[in-house]
Amino acid sequence: MNKRLCDIVDKINKVVADKIKNNDLGAFKKEHINKTFKIMRKSGILQMLNNQGRRPEQVYFSWMRGFIISNYFLKALGLIFNVDTSKIDLIGDDDLKSVETFKRTPKADIEIRLNKKEKIRIEMQSGFTGTNDIKQHKVLEAKKIFREEKIHTIAIHFDLYNGQVAFIKLDEIEDDSVNWITRQQMEGQTVFNIDQNYFIWKITENPMEYKKINFD
Prior knowledge:
- By secondary structure, the protein is α+β, with helices and mostly antiparallel strands.
- The strands form 2 sheets. A 5-stranded mixed beta sheet has the order 1-2-4-5-8. It has a 3-stranded antiparallel beta sheet with strand order 3-7-6.
- Helix content is 40%, strand content 20%.
- The mean pLDDT is 88.
- A hairpin with a 4-residue loop joins β4 and β5 (164-169).
């Protein structure tokens, strides 16, 4: 499975725009695949991964894909929001060394300061099958954050099956949107199905600037 994760990184790096390519894939894999796997195995997290009765290696593979994609596209995120990538933190080693902290932060929210007054939260997602949804609890949380702190949450969804990326303001999704559906293969969960109109960037092209995105 780790080899498959490495293959995914190789394939993506071949097709993305030159501006966001990773020029040292060996170091990237060592840091985000090999090292992460070793930490999770040593801390006992691997054995605990059994969501919905699935085998630990299946849950591990699914989680790691999202983790790796989020880290791979940090360079693109820096260009989109015009921030230094060293100031964007996803999840640290410490969160992987304890089962309890890992459960609380399976993939940490990203918070970016756009200017002295405005901050936004980023929810990074990745899809590999061409089916692109956002779970309802992510939208409810985003609305809660906006009510309490006046901070918008942007979902950036990477549809890697089609090589396209969607940008959605989660706290502005209407409760009665026609995009709310029940997904039977997800235990009947209510999800927001991402309409094609939200996909405004192709990974084969240079990232667009956040300030130029029209969310209306």
